[in-house]
Amino acid sequence: MRLSTARHRWAGALVPLAAAVLVAACTNSGAPTISGGAGTTASVTDDAPVAGHNPLAELPDPTAGARQIIQNPTLAEVLDPGPDLPEMYLGRTDAPVTIVQYASLTCPHCRAFHRDVFPQLKREYIDTGKVRYVLREFPIGKTSGTATIALRCAEPSKYFELYGKFLEQQASWVSQEVRLDPIFDVTQQVGMTRPEFDRCLQNQAMIDGLKRVKDRGRTLGIIGTPNFFIQNQRVKSTLTMAEIRGKVDPLLTGGPAATANAHAQTGFFTKLP
Questions:
Q1: Number of other residues whose CB lies within 10 A of the CB of residue 136
Q2: How do residues 167-189 score in pLDDT, each as one tens digit?
């Protein structure tokens, strides 16, 4: 489907809205690349507001320029979901270990983890009740931001299915410029209609909530994607199954961290097919 001229103008207006939830770079090196805040080293120029409109002006960030990073967060701080959006997770709420992943839909390292590692993680640890897996959005770039908004607008039972489709089909929709039709084509595969998709992208409450999810991640020291927490241990690289076993198995053998996850989380539980 071709975008009409009016829709082209509307798509241009959407760019700064999507930019409200974006700032970092997909990196597997561990080097800080986020723009803004103390301790950062680079600026992502394509996240600048368009035509003088800054949607962040509607949502002041009191930590701008002086963000406090929690160097050694407690488990309670890591598991705090924030007030805006429900946590999206797989597994039992009372699982002894929680793994939190911060991901961007355009990140090739996230795609590789989802393809090469996640199926075994799910089979060995999530489906067996040993691990609760929490996915938090950390969109990188305008295209990822737009797709992330659409992801959150999907039916909760379709969230992880759509997340997987976005990663698996990156070649069909990821580009430097935001292209709405290819993004919609992915969401359509889980039953989203075009009117639902268009309304979703104008949902300012959703955009603001996703921005706060990302801001909270930065406060916890997240600098790129994929980054993880295993309990409250931060991992700034793509995990392998060997690393997961090495970090999770000791927690399952009676160590103090194995029983520390006593906080029930508000969120959505589903099993992947």
A1: 24
A2: 999 999 999 999 999 999 999 99
